[in-house]
User: Which sequence fits this backbone?
């Protein structure tokens, strides 16, 4: 069994872009892959959002995907108690990664920490779907993260190399890669063209996905020509 | 509370700038609070950042003085800023927070369009400050939590600003992530 564990950001950007329906379509073509929501992410995008009139419709749309069994709750695979303990561990490690002005900077919140915790506990094939650049940088490039913070804070930042190790094995994709995949598989009711892809990716970007113009250009090229060397 | 001296200094300058109706100075002061808000994530720092930024934005509106209720809001704000300062000097944090809260609450006591305008500005200021924390490296969810704003609102705000056009490179190329995606979903 494989797991795609979703953070709140991709659900928000897909919903606001009117692309949430790609998830059941992708899901129906996969036999062994579960789409997973942790209680913390569910709380953020469904339970809390239902109390906000501005976004309650979106919350109901996401909730329907649980009822339709597109999303499974993490408790089907990992006990909530264990997930909660591991989440606290993630929060504790992540709050001691970077120090500036004499303070340990708290980088993460429970939602994204719970996705990391699930990844650690699942101990099987797992990908985290996250649109957060900070979260990805912690695992993929601590020096880029440090550089970013240093330039914004105008101060030295100190890395706790030991704690970063915990995050090194994590693997991420974004909503943008799911949309690219869906367009290629003809799962989106729109013409299949690099221009349509560009429109889709910009819509995600305008709804919070951390993707740059340069990456969108790269995606268009990739869509047109396939991977380099193939 | 962390960085008490910095907050005292900022509040003193805020009072002077608000009295002089100097919106530009207020926004500059607000930017000075964001570094310490990022590192300490101290709520007092964050609340001060939102208030100072909001006051600057309120003053930017044309003809604000002519709107019914302005005089009341102006006097109340100066009074509450002064009381907050005195309380902080005496290290009475409970009163300090009470008077800062009263600045925002005084908008509820105005019976005119100014009330909803001010409330809207305070909410948008909170989103703006959350986006600044995000820009400084805090995750969007953490920033939304600290500022008490909706992650949905913050995601759209970040998306429509230039923040995601970051001045740093991506850690993995798009093609590498697509490869991972396609292999995983095969």
Assistant:
């Amino acid at each position: 069994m494989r797991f795609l564990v979703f953070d709140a950001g991709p659900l928000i950007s897909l919903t606001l872009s009117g692309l949430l329906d790609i998830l059941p379509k992708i899901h129906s073509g996969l036999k062994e892959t579960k789409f997973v929501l942790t209680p913390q992410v569910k709380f953020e995008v469904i339970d809390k959002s239902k109390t906000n009139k501005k976004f309650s419709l979106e919350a109901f749309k996401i909730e329907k995907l649980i009822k339709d069994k597109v999303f499974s709750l993490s408790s089907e695979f990992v006990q909530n108690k264990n997930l909660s303990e591991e989440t606290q561990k993630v929060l504790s490690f992540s709050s001691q990664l970077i120090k500036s002005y004499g303070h340990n900077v708290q980088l993460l919140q429970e939602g994204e920490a719970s996705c990391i915790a699930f990844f650690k506990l699942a101990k099987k094939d797992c990908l985290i779907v996250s649109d957060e650049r900070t979260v990805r940088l912690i695992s993929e490039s601590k020096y880029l993260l440090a550089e970013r913070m240093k330039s914004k804070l105008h101060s030295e930042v100190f890395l706790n190399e030991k704690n970063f190790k915990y995050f090194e094995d994590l693997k991420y994709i974004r909503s943008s890669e799911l949309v690219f995949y869906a367009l290629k598989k003809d799962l989106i009711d729109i013409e299949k063209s690099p221009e349509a892809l560009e429109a889709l990716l910009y819509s995600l970007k305008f709804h919070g996905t951390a993707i740059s113009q340069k990456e969108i250009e790269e995606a268009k090229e990739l869509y047109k020509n396939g991977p380099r060397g193939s | 509370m962390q960085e008490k001296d910095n907050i005292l200094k900022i509040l003193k300058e805020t009072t002077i700038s608000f009295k002089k109706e100097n919106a530009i100075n207020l926004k500059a002061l607000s930017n000075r609070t964001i570094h310490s808000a990022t590192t300490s994530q101290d709520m007092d720092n964050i609340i001060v950042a939102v208030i100072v930024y909001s006051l600057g934005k309120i003053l930017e509106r044309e003809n604000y003085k002519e709107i019914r209720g302005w005089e009341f809001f102006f006097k109340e704000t100066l009074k509450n800023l002064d009381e907050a300062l005195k309380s902080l000097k005496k290290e009475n944090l409970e009163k300090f927070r009470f008077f800062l809260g009263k600045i925002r609450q005084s908008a509820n006591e105005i019976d005119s369009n100014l009330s909803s305008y001010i409330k809207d500005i305070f909410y948008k200021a909170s989103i703006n400050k959350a986006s600044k924390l995000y820009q400084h490296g805090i995750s969007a969810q953490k920033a939304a939590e600290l500022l008490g704003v909706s992650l949905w609102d913050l995601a759209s705000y970040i998306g429509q600003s230039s923040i995601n056009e970051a001045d740093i490179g991506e850690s993995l190329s798009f093609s590498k992530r697509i490869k991972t995606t396609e292999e995983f979903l095969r």
In short: Residues 2-78+110-135+169-173 of chain A form a domain with the Rossmann fold fold (CATH 3.40.50.1010).
